[in-house]
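Researcher: I'm preparing a figure for a lab meeting and need a structural model of a single chain. I don't have an experimental structure, so a prediction will have to do for now. The sequence is pasted below. Please return the structure as tokens so I can convert it later.
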Amino acid sequence: LEAAAAFAGDAAGYAALKSLGELADRFGRDKAAFDALLERPASDFGEDWADRETALCEYLLEHPAALKDWALYNSVRRKCAEAGIEPVAEAYEQGMPAGALEKAYRKGFYLALINNIIAGDDLLSNFSGPTFNEAIVQFKKIDDYMLQLTKKEIYLRLASNVPGAAVSPEEGQELNLLRKAIGSNARGVSIRSLFERIPHILPRLAPCMLMSPDSVAQYLAQKNGLFDVVIFDEASQIPTCKAAGALARASAAVIVGDPKQMPPTAFFSGEGPETDDLALDDLDSILEDALALGIPSQYLQWHYRSSHESLIAFSNSRFYDNRMYTFPSANDMERRVTAVFVEGLYANNTNRKEAEAVVAEIVRRFHDPALRDHSIGVVTFNMKQQNLIENLLAKQFQNDPELDAWANNGEDPLFVKNLENVQGDERDVILFSIGYGPDERGRVSNNFGPINMQGGGKRLNVAFSRARMAMTVFTSMRSTDIRVTESSPDGVVAFRDFLRYAEGHELYTEDPEAAAERLARAGIMQNICKAVEEYGYRTATMVGHSDFHVDIAVVDPYEPSRYLLGIMLDGEGYRQTSNTRDREVSQLGVLRRLGWKLLRVWTIDWWDNRDREIARLKRALDKLSADAKARYDNRMAEEDARQAGEAARAADSQKLISELEAQAAQVMAEDAAAESQTGAGPETAPVRVVQAAGAETAVTVNPGETVKIEIDLSGGGEAGQDEEPVSETAAEDAVPWDVPVSDEEAEPAAAEEEAVPDAAGTGADAGQLPEEDTSSESGEGEDSAAAWAPEEPAEYVSAELENTPLGIAGFAEPANKALIAERIAAVVNAEAPILKDAVMRKVFWSFGVQKGAASLEVFEKAFRASGVRARKQKGITYCWREDQDPKTYASIRVSNERPGEEICQQEIRNAVCYALKQKGVLERDDLIKEVSLIFGYKRLGEKLRDALATGVQWARSSGAIVSAGPNKFALPEDGE
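Model: Understood. Here is the structure written out token by token.
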């Protein structure tokens, strides 16, 4: 340009250009000085450089005090660049808050560090969760196989050691002696003498002998080294003086026992007065002496007995310092140790009210099908309370032989024991009678017998740890009734704390600092919880009362007291488990037996592909949630059916009583008319109906004259033998199966205290009911089942309901009554015949409301407004469409999602006939299986079997099928 200007002779242009160059040089010097002033590196010129610099200069002119801050900032920024952490400064300049810079830096640093560690370790960099899971499966198979091989090897070794044909003369002589003793029933020779005379073959025939210390002293010779090893079980109960004889006969000993449980006492020694609550002297046990001598010991940490952790949590916390590994249950939020308060009095070392409550609970469990399979043990504080309960039970057994057989003839019979003799026993359910309580003046003594003694806590620990499934504490006193001071015995303090626990108080609350430290070591736990909670579930962490925990538990949305899924991680707890079998097999196996559904999440998998692991979690939760919903629906259906059945039976009973009263009134009116014509006869009395025992109703007509009518008010009894069923006769003769349901069902009549006595001279036909016309149901009408032709099975069509969340307040609004009625009609039109309770369940679901008193009342009003036709069958209400006739209904609908107990008898009859039409003559069990398959069920559960069995019985009673031999059925034309 300079040359061009000079060439052009443009002096002015040349001068301007020269001035511009000087300005550029001065600008460069000023810019460098400005950068140095701000202590920033030389900035590059960019598209917006001028705007940025202008804005900066204007800011500094307006805020000259900020110049120093800028200089300091740029100095720090330069140091960041020199240290290699310039991205931190860049993040700040891009808007990251200053308070987040350190966390962001640490996160980036740890991220790089972790990636570097993983990359440098072949095991970590090549880890794959699915591959490792398969390795665990193979390990378990090999471990199980080795266990079976070990059993076989032991058996073969022992079997090969049994003397055979080729034995030494000495052994042959001993064998002959043994055979002779067996042949003569050991006549003339004692067991001890026999054992002494066969010293060579005895250890080969009986290498392991199970004996008590007394039996060892009685039957075995005093010979050192007679056994390689002696094992003492429950060693805390064996006095050292009795164990010495067994120790002397063995070369080594293994002593197994619990020093926190009851030591041996002089209770049964036969010495001292025969009084209750006596001060018992604890004896030295072989276990305590072995520990005192410092013999090497191994602490056994795992607890297996209790199927629910709450049963052992108190003992673990109180007596074992939480050293035991106990395993949480899937329903860990429930409490299986509960207290029942009884208004009883403690007098003469007994509490009768408590004893009666315990016996009543035993009887209740016997009559409850869901509970009668659970074995029961009763524990008392003293012998007199034990004797009282035993006496009350004996009276119950005399009146109820079935109760007697159930209680005493099972695999685990009922026991009633006191603290001194219950050690070693266990049952599914323990009923604990405290006995102690207020006296007649309302005062509670602080004297609790052996509990006040030294070692009283050990006695309590025995009682607290006997239950496998549940413990119910019957008490007439509260924990606040026990006065505890600094000088109170440990047993009394433990007793007070246990009562608090049974009353519902927690054992302890975790220290906040400890909780924070635990979460800090939790690894990916919080990230997984956040992902699960974002999916709509609630979670709990570190579930369990001991050092063993389920890392993450997902709450069941349909049963909030249970956990839907347990998520196990490979964190600190995983690392602390020292061996592979415990870590990968045993611990998870115990959890699964306690009802857990488990999913393992490996940290490396989460690190490598978080989205894939979240998707895997979601799939597992979706499946388990669907199963939980099905269980919830079934429970609701069962409860609804039970309540409906009870209400229906009560209504049927009241209806029959009303009919009897009306007939009795008619008889009285006729008698009164006849007497008025003759002018004689006694004065009539008011009619009253008494529902007496044995399903017998007495109708009083005149003073001194009673008419008795045999009638079943229960709505049907149990089925009898195959050839002579009785369940369908009495009730159906009196009440037709198809009874229209009134808008309001009457409450059952109150029973009189005493039945009206039978009067002499009552006519045989007096008070008989008129016959109901049930010919169509007995196979004698025009629709006789002899020619029954059911339709082909078709798919069950469910109603498509709109989800309209109203909440209970909106559901109860009168304005929504018509909408609810329409929804009811929609369900019935699509799914009839359908159980009324099933209609209610579906309607409740569609409106998002729960079953309760308020929602039930709203539903009943809307149900009546819907105009749906409801009819009763065996005390259960079914809904039918107007175009359906129960007498001619021939459909069979296939759906394995419909509970079997919700299928009406007509539809089961149709399936029964269809099965016999396809298969011919079938035995009862085979027929029930075929019917379940026709309905689409893949599994024949107990409830489904019972429902179908009732349907088969009903089909036979109605004449749709006939007996074709012992326990066999056929269609009428095939059975003739």
